[in-house]
């Protein structure tokens, strides 16, 4: 069995409330891809304040910098807000890590356990491997289709000569902690090293790394890199086309020069040729003016031939590059279609399970409200009470679902309390149904009386006659 490995940077979409499952009512509806009944299976590894981290990491550097400033307007009042208001640097970075895909974890708790073990072991020494990446939030989600980790950190670099001595910088931070990284693409190099560590941890469980899809893209990040390469190819092709156009214009100028040379020269047939004398029979004599015309024609023709060959070579190169680009574009389209399909599936899943966690807040509210009473309640009574609360919340949120189905999601120790609520609910529903039936029968009787009334009136009139 093989599992894929995905490690992508997703800083622009960071939502710590989402990562820590702290939702408003509106956000709950927008995050229905989350199975809230399984949220207690999530593993929260680190949960710190980002602002406090900034204060601890950059407070002294900010003070030292401000002490050196003579002008007040150059001082930094709050480095966190200073970065937040800027457009060049992100406040923090987020990485999303995953081993395997949804097919590996469907009805397979063993694989889910392996994925969690790999991610947790990888994270255990993350800060030891990366002392310049200060983690403030880390969580493993097990309440979605596939287990995955959201890792949030602040990259801290030092030794700046302009501005504060210590600043936020991802590339500089990872290069300072590992000077073997590629200086031009340090993130890609750093990421590959971390992915290799995940691959090693998978092998410890007897699982080989599996490449994603039918191409060589290892994950979505590789796809983005490939797109960058294609954009570079597009630029190269545009440059080649521009060069081709320039050469074509030059060729046209040479052709015009050739035509002009033809116009000013005599035709070859009209050139007067004088044979050599007795001792010079292998040569002919022509006027200097005619010789110069022939020489001009020959040089122009040779130049035209050379340029034509060069243009043909450039054209062949452009065609090959275009074919390679077209092939890669086809592969990208297939990959994009796969991503669109996965997105549609997640949206559908989002619509199906959107309100599962609301009952938790109801239960917490009741527990807080009645905390003094709960202190003397037995475990059995507490379970029964929680079961009743859970059942009430489920009935409220899933009005069209039968109590029998709802009972299947209630923990065993809470079922007794839930059954009493469901039984009371069914009794009430039956009473409502009887009331509706009575109303229907009464309505039918009323309609019957209205229909019979005109007939009786007609009989009375005939009797009077």
Secondary structure: helix percent: 55-70%
- The top-level CATH class of the largest domain is Alpha Beta
Q: Could you give a short account of the major beta sheet?
A: 6 strands, antiparallel
Total E-strand runs: 10
Count of DSSP H/I helices = 16
pLDDT < 50 runs, ≥5 residues: 213-220
Walkthrough of the structure:
The protein has 465 residues and is an alpha+beta fold. The chain has three domains: 2-210, BirA Bifunctional Protein, domain 2, CATH 3.30.930; 231-352; 358-464, no CATH class. Helix content is 62%, strand content 10%. The protein has helices spanning 16-19, 25-30, 50-68, 79-85, 102-105, 109-124, 126-129, 170-177, 186-204, 220-264, 288-352, 358-369, 371-374, 379-397, 403-407, 415-464; strands at residues 2-3, 5-9, 43-47, 93-99, 133-141, 148-158, 166-168, 208-209, 274-275, 284-285. The strands form three sheets. Strands 2, 3, 4, 5, 6 and 7 form a six-stranded antiparallel sheet that branches. It has a two-stranded parallel ribbon with strand order 1-8. The chain starts with a strand and ends with a helix.
Keywords summarizing the entry:
alpha+beta; extended; six-stranded antiparallel sheet; BirA Bifunctional Protein, domain 2; about 475 residues; two-stranded parallel sheet
What is shown here, in short?
The protein has helices at residues 16-19, 25-30, 50-68, 79-85, 102-105, 109-124, 126-129, 170-177, 186-204, 220-264, 288-352, 358-369, 371-374, 379-397, 403-407, 415-464; strands at residues 2-3, 5-9, 43-47, 93-99, 133-141, 148-158, 166-168, 208-209, 274-275, 284-285.
């Amino acid at each position: 069995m093989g599992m894929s490995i995905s490690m992508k940077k997703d800083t622009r979409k960071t939502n710590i409330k989402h990562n820590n499952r702290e939702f408003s009512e509106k956000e709950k509806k927008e995050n229905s891809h989350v199975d809230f009944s399984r949220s207690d299976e999530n593993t929260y590894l680190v949960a710190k304040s980002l602002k406090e981290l900034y204060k601890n990491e950059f407070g002294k550097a900010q003070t030292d910098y401000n002490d050196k400033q003579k002008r007040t307007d150059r001082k930094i009042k709050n480095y966190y807000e200073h970065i937040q208001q800027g457009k060049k640097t992100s406040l923090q970075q987020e990485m999303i890590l995953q081993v395997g895909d949804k097919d590996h974890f469907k009805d397979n708790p063993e694989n889910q356990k392996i994925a969690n073990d790999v991610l947790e072991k990888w994270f255990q020494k993350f800060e030891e491997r990366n002392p310049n990446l200060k983690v403030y939030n880390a969580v493993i989600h097990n309440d979605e289709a596939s287990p995955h980790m959201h890792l949030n950190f602040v990259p801290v670099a030092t030794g700046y000569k302009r501005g504060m001595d210590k600043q936020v910088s991802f590339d500089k931070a990872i290069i300072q902690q590992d000077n073997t990284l590629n200086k031009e693409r340090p993130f890609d190099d750093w990421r590959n090293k971390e992915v290799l560590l995940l691959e090693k941890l998978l092998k410890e469980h007897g699982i080989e790394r599996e490449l994603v899809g039918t191409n060589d893209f290892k994950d979505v990040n590789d796809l983005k890199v490939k797109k960058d390469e294609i954009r570079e190819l597009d630029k190269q092709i545009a440059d080649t086309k521009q060069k081709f156009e320039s050469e074509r214009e030059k060729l046209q100028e040479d052709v015009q020069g050739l035509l002009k040379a033809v116009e000013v020269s005599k035709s070859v047939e009209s050139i007067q040729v004088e044979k050599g004398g007795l001792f010079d029979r292998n040569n002919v004599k022509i006027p200097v003016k005619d010789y110069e015309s022939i020489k001009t024609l020959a040089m122009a023709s040779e130049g035209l031939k050379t340029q034509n060959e060069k243009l043909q070579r450039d054209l062949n190169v452009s065609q090959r590059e275009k074919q390679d680009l077209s092939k890669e574009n086809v592969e990208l389209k297939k990959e994009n279609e796969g991503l669109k399909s996965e997105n549609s599936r997640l949206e559908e899943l989002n619509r199906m399970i959107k309100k599962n966690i609301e009952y938790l807040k109801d239960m917490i509210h009741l527990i807080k409200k009645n905390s003094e009473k709960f202190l003397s309640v037995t475990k059995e009574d507490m379970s029964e009470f929680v079961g009743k609360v859970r059942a009430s919340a489920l009935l409220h949120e899933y009005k069209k679902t039968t109590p029998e189905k709802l009972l299947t999601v209630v923990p065993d120790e809470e079922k007794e309390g839930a059954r009493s609520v469901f039984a009371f609910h069914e009794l009430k529903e039956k009473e409502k149904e009887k009331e509706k039936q009575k109303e229907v029968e009464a309505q039918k009787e009323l309609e019957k009386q209205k229909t019979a009334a005109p007939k009786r009136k007609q009989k009375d009139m005939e009797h009077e006659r």
